[in-house]
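Subject: sequence -> structure tokens, single chain

Hey, anyone have a minute? Need the predicted structure for the following. Not urgent.
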Amino acid sequence: MPTFGLLGYPLSHSFSRGYFTAKFADLGLSDTHRYLNFEIPTLEDFQKILDEYPDLRGLNVTIPHKQGVVALLDAIDPAAERIGAVNTILIEDGKTRGFNTDYLGFRDDLLAQLRSQQRFTNLRGQSALILGSGGAALAVREALLDLSVKPVTVSRSARAGQLSYADLDRDTLTTHRLIVNTTPLGMYPQVETAPEIPYELLTPAHFCYDLIYNPAETRFMRLARGAGAGAANGMGMLHSQAEAAWNIWTAE
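Reply:
Had a minute. Here:
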């Protein structure tokens, strides 16, 4: 039976299994296809999964394995190699090839959200803060560069080319009006957590995009909206990247 799955840890928040199970039903494939969760805290068991499931055709990859899995694959798509992270794996003739569909999913949904909320009629030349520095942040950075937006990464400690959360003062928030949360802060079940940014400095000129989709409104989004800023969650991005993954797995 053709098998697909999700690789990550933890997976209690997972969207993918339900999404693809429903997709199989819609396509009349429920009796012939399956989607499994592979909840592994480290990648030591990656090869074991491949060996134990010879019918495995494709994997989605989520936190915390998007970067670490790159070195374990037989080949990498050029875009994923440029980003340095993989969220989709194609398994064909015993070989693994990594792709990054987060990039397309974020780019397309960000533009759709900005249009629907009538924010940033022209992104070109804008500056953005990316909260977090993991695999998803790398995809977001690539998408923003593609949109001619200047991205600046914010992490817990400052380093060359990055800011720390302590660096986020009024001047920084004034010149960086697009803020993207790529950290897991606020994800179910830790719903009362949020990135430590000065929300009181946000204005209606800001837009805050959270890659988290569960809960539908994170504390990050709620605090941003409370200051008058626009906000969106990552559900649209998730749908877009999932469809891109399916197209990769089923391409002739």
